[in-house]
Amino acid sequence: MWELLHGSTREGVRKDDLAYALMVIRGARAPNREIDCQPVEDKQGMARFIIFDQEGNLQFRKGGQVKLGAKFRSFYINKLQAEATSSYPRIGKPAEISADKALSKKFTCSAKTIEYAEKRKRKLESEGCDIVESLYRKHKVMDERNKARAIE
Amino acid sequence: MANLGQKFLKQFNEVLRNMENSEEDWDQTQLVTFQHAGSILATVGFLQEDVTEDKPDYKLF
Predict the structure, then answer these.
(1) What is the pTM of this model?
(2) Which residues in chain B have Cβ-Cβ distances shorter than 8 Å to A6?
């Protein structure tokens, strides 16, 4: 990657070039930023898809972004794993992020609900019946009540 | 591209700002050196933090 960005020959890379390359590796694609031109003759492999304009800005030839993404797929995988465990805001649609939060959120009962559940549990234990039977009986009673109301 | 790119750039720029504040002899007007680029990639998550020279990812970098 360092060689592709001409890091050795220029003794460093421009921050914008590095950001652009990493953005493409992360999965961003902008075909309108690709240039339809011939490769430099002495270049081989992935280097054939990378060119620098007169001002020294990194540019891709047609299809270069996809090629770069494929070549650095392991970087992409590392990045996704890092995002999953990072404290940085996740990259994704807001709906996906909120869904993730909802899944990780633990269910909590209010004090009133816990009190009611305990009361109900004690009552069932005193009656000597199990929860399934109790719920079945409750639905049966409610069904009969609804039928009676419908007839009225 | 725009949404994904903007979010990534925000994170990238934050890392550069932190690097500028912590590195006395580097600011954002200069080129990013090999060592700094490695730090950036590890910080934003493209390289694992415990990467060593014999790992395939290091060679790819």
Answers:
(1) 0.64
(2) none
